[in-house]
Design goal:
It contains twelve helices and ten strands. The radius of gyration is 19 Å and the shape is globular. It is α/β, with parallel strands linked by helices. A hairpin with a 2-residue loop joins strand 1 and strand 2. Helix content is 35%, strand content 18%. The strands form two sheets. An eight-stranded mixed beta sheet has the order 1-2-4-3-5-6-9-10, sandwiched between helices. It has a single domain, classed as Rossmann fold.
Amino acid sequence: MKKTLLMTMAVASSLAFTSVANAAENNPFGLVYKGAVVENVKGKVNIHPVTYTLNGLKIAANVYTPAGYEATKKYPAVVVAHPNGGVKEQVAGLYAQRLAEKGYITIAADASYQGASEGTPRNVDKPFYRTEDIHGMVDYISAYPGVDANRIGALGICGGGGYTLNAAKSDKRFRAVATLSMFNSGQVRRNGYMNTQLDSIQARLKDASDARIKELAGEIGYSGNVDFDALTDESISKIPTDLYREGMMYYGKTHRHPNSTFRYTTSSLMDLMSWDATDNIDLINVPLLLMAGEKADSLYMSEEAFKKATGTTDKELFKIPGATHIQTYFVPEYVDQAVAKLTEFYGKNLK
């Protein structure tokens, strides 16, 4: 039971960080990352909360515009997809802001059924919707004043990385595709993290099927439930994998946001467990950059995707020296390295 709970939680970070407790309340835009925009000042990077409709749902997003932005000029753009359990105000917002500082118009949106976006039941996490969310961000940002629709890149973080790879297989509006700490949600939900649940696949699929039946009667079941208020440093320290141990700290304590949750509808596993981010990945035929922490226990997923991405010869697996999965979300030296690599990558391919 304890093992199953640990393996169904979701991603993030520990060690020594500056506490940002209550940051969501203190920042007018709800942002919880260090160095976040606190007010829109002329001549600097600005943030613009927006909403748009996707498949009948109102999607909540933040658009970041670069310093000196003028709607009459033309800028390259990047869409940023957040991790599983995450929201736009956390790491996705950090990278969106950092890229805006480099001259890009960026967008980070809450996934359908999650965060501040509409959709019921809450916290549905199905590959179709998560992929559509990325297509939807492209739809919106392509028409944003100042965006050059011929110069759009993608950045997917953690679970958003796997879904970004999926979106890029068919969405040829992307000129360049990048991921950070890519998490293949289908593979992990099916096989367990680091392939630790191979012996229970059929039983878990049966549970998911039963949960769908119960949903028809109005009973919504959830997996990955974590009581953040009950987390203690001692209980977190006992989690064996870096990803989940550091994730508990990042999402539950240091970068906590009220809209962020690890839970997802159990019935979602019917879709997740029969899906894989790397299926048909050879359809990606544009420059591809996969970034991951050198010490991340999730590195194997980026390595597998890199090997299977045979549709492009312009590809790179960039291992951030010394970093674990979650540390790429917030530790300045690792974020700086990732942003520098992204700036080089997009600068070359979104000319």
